[in-house]
Write a structure and sequence with these properties.
- Strands 1-2 form a two-stranded parallel ribbon.
- The protein starts with 15 loop residues before the first helix and ends with a helix.
- It has 17 helices and two strands.
- It is mainly alpha-helical and 350 residues long.
- About 2% of the residues have low confidence.
Length: 350
Amino acid sequence: MTTPTMTEPPVRRGSDYAVLSRRVAEAGLLTRRPGGYAVRIVLTLGAFLAGWAVLVAVGDSWAQLLVAVGMAVATTQVAFLGHDAGHRQMFRRRGHSEAAGLIAGNLAVGTSYGWWVDKHNRHHANPNHEDEDPDVGAGALVWTYEQAAGTRGFGRWLAARQAWFFFPMLLLEGLWLHVASVRALAGREPDGRWTTPIRHRAVEALLLGAHAVGYLGLLFAVMSPGKALLFVAVHQGLWGLYMGCAFAPNHKGMPMPSAHDDLDFLRKQVLTSRNVRGGRLVDVALGALNYQIEHHLFPNMPRANLRRAQPIVRAYCAEHGIGYAETGLVESYRQAMAHLHEVGRPLRDR
């Protein structure tokens, strides 16, 4: 496998997105669906709270490890609600969206909503762009040959074998999200400015504190310290794994544009994204992020409308000769891992 690159875009493209957007709007797919979201919110938060009620009922038992597995699923589904709120898919008013995001993110899940929105908006603006997209910046994993060449020590050893460690590393994703949230809320530049722009910093800090106290307090009140710590490990580890598996198929292994690529909005979003085929179960399991192309083209489109928008977008891309990537879930992981393995190849060949 070779690292995907961008192809030369067609000359005529100025109004391509405007035409597609008009077709989608005429189909009524950009209209918000507050009633549907109200049902989704009630069901999701209901399942989440029911999970905590089961935890209390089970008490100091090793069966709590099974509860932790279920809570990892419920926590991810709540996080998907925070994602939708961040894109203002639920409500037209910003205040309502922010309230939903703060409750889902900071209070229920324990991650900073403001930090995530800032990071995720930068990703949407320049998906898979090495210098602009924070999701493909060099870190524990590397996504380009240049990033791999810049590694040293243990990071270099890991980069050469990163495809094998990808899924095990996701078990630490939940912990990283918590740590990154606290750092974003507290971090300052040398001149005293906040590192991350967050609108409701004090409220977010209060909600994160309430989450930590409530989460750990409940666990240690119901279980022995050993069982409580094991619950945390299983819950947080599987939540991180689930989150990573939901987001990994979307862009990993897709073309990575550079400053030299002259792409309009339509092509920048479509060519860097990958859809995942599947039925309603896949839609629910991935929070409808399996319609990643449609989501990137219309980020404020309600989740339930993405499936209906897909045939319109796919047909439009075919009309204009724009590559539209779509594959099965397992194949999407294979492609992502193949990309990670290829990026580390120069380090293994030495």
